[in-house]
Design a protein that fits this description.
Layout (H helix, E strand, L loop, with lengths): L5 H6 L2 E7 L6 H11 L16 H12 L5 H18 L1 E8 L9 H17 L4 E9 L4 H13 L5 E7 L7 H14 L3 E6 L5 H9 L5 E4 L7 H9 L4 E3 L1 H6 L10 H7 L3 E3 L11 H12 L3 H14 L4 H17 L1
Parallel strand pairs: 1-2, 2-3, 3-4, 4-5, 5-6, 6-7, 7-8
This protein binds adenine (ADE) and zinc ion.
Length: about 325
C-alpha cells in the first residue's frame, strides 16, 4: 500500500458529509464583505474567529452570515466552497445550511442562490455539491415548521435533506421537531441530526428514535453507551466525526478523543471538517492529522471514504460512481 504522504492524501477521492456553509467564510472574505458594506469588524482581523465555547462560536457564525445580503453573494459563497472542495480532492460533498444564521437574506433568496452556485460549479467541472437545510435546536417550533414547509414546497435535485444543529442542550427540540422531520421524510428528504456533541448518548438515541435520523453528525458521545455502539454498528448508522472541531470546541482532547475506538469497534465513521475556514482546518489536514496521531495508513483513510459512500444521500448510480472512483484509487495504491 502507498505510504501516507500529502500527495497521496490529496489524490484520494474524498467525500465530505459534515460541513456547514456558515463555516466556509475565510477571514479575507469576511473583511472584504464588511468593508464593502461599511460594517465595523467585531474584533481585529487576527481575533476575528476567536471563541471560547460553542455558544460564542454559534454567535460568530451569525455575524459572518449577516454580511451576505443578496443573491449574488450567496451564490458566490457556494461556488467558492466548490472551488475549495476541488483543491482538496473532495469529489462529492453534502453541505449543511442553517437559515437562522443568515439574518439579512430571506430563505426564498438564500436557498435558490446557494443551489445555483452549486449548479454553476458542477457545470464548470467542480465537485458535485448537495444541500442539507438545517433547523437550529433553539429556534421556535413555528419558524422551524415554516422552513420545513418551504423545503417541501420547493423540491430540487441538489436539495437532499433536513438536518438540525446548534446547541444540543436544548434537548426538548427532539420532541418539538419530531413531526417536522416526519413531514420532511414523507416528502422524500433524507434526515440527519447533530447529536452526541454537546449532548450525551441519550441525544443520539433521541435523534434516531424521535427524529428518525439516518446518520448522525458528531455522535462521538456514543462511546459512553455500549448498547448504542452495537446498535449503530448493526444498523450501519454512520457518525460524521469532526476531530479538529471537537478539540477546538472542547468536546474532547486529542488524547481522549474516541475516533479510533469507534473505528476499531466497527461503527461506520467518516472524517469531516464541520467549519473548515473558521477552525483553520481542511479535509486534507484533517486526514493527515488523524493518520499521524493514530499511526493509520492509506488503508484506514480509504475505509473512511467507503464509509462515507455508504452514508451519503445521493442517488444509487452516483453512489456506485463514487465507490468505483475509490476502488480505482485503491487498486493503484
Ligand atoms: N453549526 C456549525 N457548527 C456546529 C457545531 N459544531 N455544532 C453545532 N452546530 C453547529
Ligand atoms: Zn456540525
Amino acid at each position: 500500500m502507498t505510504p501516507i504522504t500529502k500527495e497521496a492524501i490529496r489524490a484520494l477521492p474524498k467525500i465530505e458529509l459534515h460541513i456547514h456553509l456558515e463555516g466556509t467564510f475565510s477571514k479575507e472574505y469576511v473583511c472584504q464583505l464588511a468593508e464593502k458594506l461599511d460594517v465595523p469588524l467585531p474584533h481585529d482581523k487576527e481575533h476575528l474567529f476567536s471563541f471560547t465555547c460553542l455558544a460564542e462560536f454559534l454567535e460568530m457564525l451569525d455575524w459572518n452570515c449577516s454580511l451576505i445580503r443578496n443573491a449574488a453573494d450567496a451564490e458566490q459563497l457556494a461556488y467558492h466552497f466548490a472551488e475549495y472542495a476541488k483543491e482538496q480532492g473532495i469529489v462529492y460533498a453534502e453541505v449543511i445550511l442553517n437559515p437562522t444564521h443568515w439574518k439579512n437574506i430571506s430563505l426564498d433568496v438564500l436557498v435558490p442562490s446557494v443551489l445555483a452556485g452549486f449548479d454553476r460549479a458542477a457545470q464548470d467541472g467542480l465537485p458535485d455539491c448537495r444541500l442539507m437545510v438545517s433547523l437550529l435546536r433553539t429556534q421556535s417550533t413555528k419558524t422551524a415548521a415554516e422552513t420545513v414547509d418551504w423545503l417541501t414546497a420547493h423540491p430540487h435535485s441538489r436539495l437532499i435533506g433536513l438536518s438540525v444543529d446548534g446547541n444540543e442542550e436544548a434537548a426538548e427540540s427532539n420532541e418539538r421537531f419530531s413531526p417536522l422531520f416526519a413531514k420532511a421524510k414523507e416528502n422524500g428528504l433524507h434526515l440527519t441530526a447533530h447529536a452526541g456533541e454537546s449532548s450525551g448518548p441519550e441525544g443520539v438515541w433521541e435523534a434516531l428514535q424521535l427524529l428518525q435520523a439516518e446518520r448522525i453528525d458528531h455522535g462521538v458521545r456514543a462511546m459512553d453507551d455500549e448498547r448504542l455502539l452495537e446498535y449503530l454498528k448493526d444498523n450501519h448508522i454512520a457518525l460524521n466525526v469532526c476531530f479538529t472541531s471537537n478539540i477546538l470546541c472542547n468536546i474532547f482532547t486529542e488524547e481522549n478523543h474516541p475516533l479510533k475506538a469507534l473505528f476499531d469497534y466497527g461503527v461506520p465513521v467518516t472524517a469531516s471538517t464541520d467549519d473548515p475556514h473558521i477552525l483553520v482546518d481542511t479535509m486534507c489536514y484533517e486526514l493527515e492529522h488523524i493518520a499521524s496521531l493514530y499511526g493509520w495508513g492509506m488503508e484506514e483513510l480509504i475505509r473512511l471514504q467507503y464509509n462515507a459512500v455508504e452514508a451519503c444521500f445521493c442517488p444509487k448510480e452516483k453512489k456506485e460512481m463514487l465507490r468505483k472512483k475509490i476502488e480505482e484509487f485503491e487498486s493503484r495504491c
